[in-house]
Write a sequence for this structure.
């Protein structure tokens, strides 16, 4: 079997990271500083240093996997641009990975169903529901959506497990019941992004490109415009006679 070297990029939230995975072995995972998460040029330098530390070059990478969201507008754009540019420049394969699926992957093995939440600003949450299939892999139960914080807390099932960066927004008011309490496993990791990308590549093989595997068409998963984009759209609309 051909060995596979995967570069994982995770810039969706406050704790960005990059990772190098060879087959099922993580060679290295590095947390990004604030600059590295917000500027594509700095992120490229971080990746270059990580590869160099293991005597690797960009062209040694077979697949680049990037977190596609939901998450930070700026962070997702930086990560996506970096991954697309890397794939274009090196000729390696590309995949955009569901950030919430990567977060679900961190959950303990005895959990079979959970909600993943992230702060969507304006007192809203991004909410995704996931369940393990017959192969013990996570699959999405329903499309990720935006729900107000209060509606989510009132409507979720009493025994549902909840994880994700958005837990920090609600746990103080509602107690720790049913939240995954370790903040570390609520965050997406570049290692998991890389691992999920590798598994997808192995399971699908050479098939037609999709929006997730074609870097020309891939884009961050936002669900709605940023506040700045909404303001611009409103301004333009107001100026139309």
């Amino acid at each position: 079997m051909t060995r596979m070297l995967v570069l994982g990029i995770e810039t969706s939230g406050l704790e960005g990271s990059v990772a190098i995975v060879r087959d099922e072995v993580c060679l290295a995972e590095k947390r990004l500083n604030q600059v590295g998460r917000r500027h594509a040029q700095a992120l490229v330098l971080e990746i270059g240093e990580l590869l160099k530390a293991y005597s690797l070059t960009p062209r040694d990478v077979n697949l680049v996997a990037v977190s596609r969201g939901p998450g930070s507008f700026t962070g997702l754009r930086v990560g996506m641009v970096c991954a697309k540019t890397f794939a274009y420049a090196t000729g390696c394969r590309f995949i955009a990975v569901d950030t919430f699926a990567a977060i679900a992957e961190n959950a303990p093995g005895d959990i079979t169903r959970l909600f993943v939440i992230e702060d969507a600003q304006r007192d809203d949450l991004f909410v995704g529901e996931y369940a393990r299939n017959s192969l013990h892999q996570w699959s999405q139960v329903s499309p990720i959506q935006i729900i107000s914080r209060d509606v989510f807390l009132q409507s979720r099932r009493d025994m549902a497990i909840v994880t994700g960066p958005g837990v920090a927004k609600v746990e103080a008011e509602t107690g720790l019941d049913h939240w995954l309490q370790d903040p570390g496993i609520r965050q997406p990791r570049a290692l998991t992004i890389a691992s999920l990308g590798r598994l997808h590549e192995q399971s699908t093989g050479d098939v037609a490109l999709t929006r997730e595997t074609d870097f020309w068409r891939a884009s961050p998963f936002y669900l709605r415009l940023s506040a700045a984009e909404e303001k611009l759209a409103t301004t333009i609309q107001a100026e139309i006679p």
